[in-house]
Design brief:
Distance between the termini: 40 Å
Shape: globular
Number of helices: 9
Length: 235
């Protein structure tokens, strides 16, 4: 399935699609040293139902009976727990389609999640196949053009479509949240982003997504939106 066809496929079979995003320690955090950044939350949303599942540091710590003052000393056990729970969830859904935002490699991506799982469990994860992963950013470029919004694209797209969503954190803000162990705030940001991705998909399907690109489809969508607004005023 090509990136440009993804929205039509979601419209036809919304039950086949999951949206995923995660938060982690910053790659440039001095505390990470030579190690890969720790995963602090993974959030998955079923597109059709909107049901959202979180696998997060604070919930894993609570389920393990680890108090807030012991989290740092037991990071490995907590991160292992949340990743095992995530992959237990993903195992039976690996043949579905997984929509993500730039989760491309071991720096930030499915490979990073897999690497952390291997390191902490010593086992191979039930990996989500490359063939069922679709980058929403690439799909938007294919539909609206490479210039559909300026960088940083996620925040620019939010600003064009109602403004920054409640709970959203930038990468720098997430790094600061990790330093002060505000894992709930990091998880809330991840949930907010997954919800926004769902909104972007549904708005694109309806022809209501606002973009700033110059591609032909942008002009068509703007014309249709203008006509809808005109009809609403007359009714």
């Amino acid at each position: 399935m090509r990136n440009r066809d993804i929205f039509e496929e979601i419209d036809r079979h919304p039950d086949r699609f999951f949206i995923i995003h995660y938060s982690s320690q910053s790659l440039f955090d001095a505390e990470a040293g030579a190690l890969s950044p720790r995963i602090t939350s993974v959030v998955v949303r079923h597109y059709k139902t909107g049901q959202t599942v979180s696998f997060a540091t604070h919930t894993s710590a609570e389920s393990l009976g680890i108090g807030p003052d012991q989290v740092e000393a037991q990071y490995d056990e907590i991160e292992k727990d949340l990743l095992v729970k995530f992959y237990n969830f993903a195992r039976d859904r690996r043949e579905k389609y997984w929509i993500h935002w730039n989760m491309r490699n071991v720096v930030f991506g499915f490979e990073h999640l897999e690497h952390r799982y291997r390191k902490l469990t010593g086992q191979e994860p039930p990996s989500i196949p490359v063939e069922v992963r679709y980058n929403l950013n690439d799909a938007l470029k294919a539909r609206y053009g490479e210039d559909y919004v300026p960088d940083p694209r996620m925040l620019s797209l939010m600003n064009l479509n109602g403004g920054k969503i409640q709970g959203f954190l930038t990468g720098a803000e997430e790094a600061e949240a990790f330093k002060v162990k505000d894992f709930i705030r990091m998880n809330t940001s991840t949930i907010a982003k997954v919800g926004f991705f769902s909104y972007v998909i549904s708005s694109s399907i309806k022809g209501k997504l606002k973009t700033s690109g110059k591609a032909f489809i942008n002009r068509i969508d703007r014309l249709l939106e203008s006509r809808r607004a005109s009809c609403d005023r007359r009714s």
